Amino acid sequence: GLFVTDYFTRTPRKLSPFRSFASIELFHFHIPEDTVIAVWNLITFKEQGGTFGDQCPDRSITVYFRSGAPSVINPLHTHFPRDTAVPGSFALTLTWTLPNRTTGVFNVTSPLPGDWFLAAHLPKDEGKISVKGLYEECQYLFQPQLIVQRLVNIAVLYPGYVTEQSMAPHNRSCLYKVFVPSYTSRVLVEVLQCRGAESCPLWLRVRAKAPPLHNSTALDCREHTPCQLALDLPFWQHWYYVLVEKHPGVPGTVSFQVTVQLTDCSRPSLARPPFLPSSASMNMPHSFGSAAGLVLGENPPPVSPNSTKHPVHIASPSGEQCWPIRPTLRNELDTFSVHFYIFFGPNVSVPPDRPAVFVINLLPVLDSGGVLNLELRLNVSSLCGENVTVFGCLNHEVPLTSGDNASVTCETEHLAGFLLSVNATASLSRLRIPYPQTGSWYLSLRSLCATEHGFEPCTNVTAEVYLRAYLSPCINDCGMYGQCKLLRTNNYLYAACECKAGWNGWGCTDNTEAFSYGFQLLSTLLLCLSNVMFVPPVAIAVRSHYLLEAAVYIFTMFFSTFYHACDQPGIVVFCIMEYDVLQFCDFLGSLMSVWVTVIAMARLQPVVKQASVLYLLGAMLLSMALQMDRHGLWNLLGPSLFALGIMAIAWTARTIQRRHCYPPTWKRWAFYLCPGALIAAAAVLLYAFVETEENYFYIHSIWHLLIAGSVGFLLPPRAKSSRRLGPLPRRKGCGYQLCVNEQEELGLVDPAVASINSICTS
């Protein structure tokens, strides 16, 4: 056949270490119908500071693939919540082949058409808290590319008609497809009148949704006469692909006929009439490359030059009876918050002689990012003392209404579903499916009585069941120790839990590494009470008449205490304001404390009469910077360096003016300035290089103690004027005047010592 190649790519994204599903990068692709091969080219490269990160360490990258919905992954091997079904997915780990670049390839032969999702992440790290902008961070960028090759002009088989085909010696196979509408209980494919070789050397393979593979349902026509392949309970509203393959080493041309018979479950004794204008014609989509691009209608199909079609009626075995399917009413409350109401429900009656079938329709793409929840509650009083068990089978795209043991196991040869059961002992059953595949989900309820020989149909007992079905963003809203986050990747929305306080798992229910209540209380008290260290600096500031500085320290102590009381991950949390307000005030108070302390050390009041303008200017600039980026490095360094620059200029000017180092006393340097500077430097080093998520509560508490302690050392002493010597009158004619060196410039606490020790130029 003729192949067409399509190419898709996505923008590179930065990968993050895995902590929860909220930290992964999700990519969404769409594979067209009739695709025979899909190749993902997985490109990963390192960057550091805008250049290639050759010096970055090699970190493995895990990529997950799933069709229909995002992958439900568990790389940390945590426990899932109870009653949670975990769908499978493909996983691939990429290793580095070059210093700064690696490429992986993932091939899928005959992939299922529709939505495909890729999830990628880095391995979990130690959770180091780094200051933004302190150093160039290693970034790992991931870019997936998809190349698909699909067939065009695939021959379409029409139910009830025979298609004649000749397979030339150089051809190995012939591919067909047939559309299976709703309410089809059986698909029968048959190869007729095989000529050109002995014993019909052909393989017959059938697969739903995509071309058959080597492990698809197959039949060897040499060993089976007639060559018929039957599929019970086929998927509704999907294409079925039929592959007729020649055995290796068969010479010459092989001629045969292919026919497909669909059994309508509403008419079990008859095959579906050809070209009946029913659901078959109303719901059949246009074929990608079908003959003349026609849908099944009232007129017979055209005859192609290489094959002929004519109607034929084949006897069909009696199939399952078609039970009525009750629809559900969709009520959308919010994003991923949808309730499915049953007409004349929510209590439903399950008769003893037939199942009760319900359908839940999930919208494509929109509903696959949440959690499908199902709840069954049995009304025990309706059993009349009988040992009745109600089994529920939830299947995707086709209902399971078999009356044998399939109702108990919820599985057949070609179909598997999710099983729920309720009885008088366990009257409640729940099922949660994270990231469900979209389309139609069918719930079949059947009541069976337990006997010595197993489960058998009940007599004269109609069970009553309360049924609840709904779509939620997360499982139980992530519980007490998690937060349900709504995430977006391009135009696709999905929800995931972000756990805290050491809890893990898909619903934040795994307490293997959870923090105890005592540990949470201890960490909260350490972070809050460590701010009491600001009381001595406040007392020193008040005693030294630095009332503005004391007010700033009190502001910082208050908001830092209540910010950390509100910022705790566990249940020991106390918020007096909104979290964002407390965070802003805490950051502003911390930076303002540094600013006013350094400006006070500069001693600008005797030099600049309006030195208070700097305090107001600092408050306005810091507020603006914090509003732009609260975690940026220059928000802390910029104002601090600016204030230190002002202090350095003031001290240098005094040193030049006095011709003596300022501050002039060695005691001030040895017992105040140097210890304060060392304590502040140690605090900054702890904050920037040692703090992690695990040690945050005590390292950050030490940061509070060191910063407050450094302020007590660095704050200058009280400024006092001399009481013995007043201002000396200026001598006229000499051009010089004698100046009294003020006590605050000497850095002395005792004002009794005052001398005229310098001569200043007039």
TrEMBL record:
Alphabetical UniProt keywords: Cell membrane, Membrane, Transmembrane, Transmembrane helix
GO cellular component terms given for this protein: plasma membrane
Membrane-topology descriptor: Multi-pass membrane protein
Domain EGF-like: 497-508
Subcellular locations according to the entry: Cell membrane
Keyword Cell membrane: yes
Residue ranges crossing the lipid bilayer per the database entry: 514-534, 546-565, 571-595, 607-626, 632-653, 669-690, 696-715
Pfam families for the chain: DUF3522
Presence of the UniProt keyword Amino-acid biosynthesis in the record: no
Record-linked InterPro entries: EGF, NGX6/PGAP6/MYMK
Protein family: Belongs to the TMEM8 family.
Protein name, per record: TMM8B protein
Source organism per UniProt: Todus mexicanus (Puerto Rican tody)
Gene giving rise to this polypeptide: Tmem8b
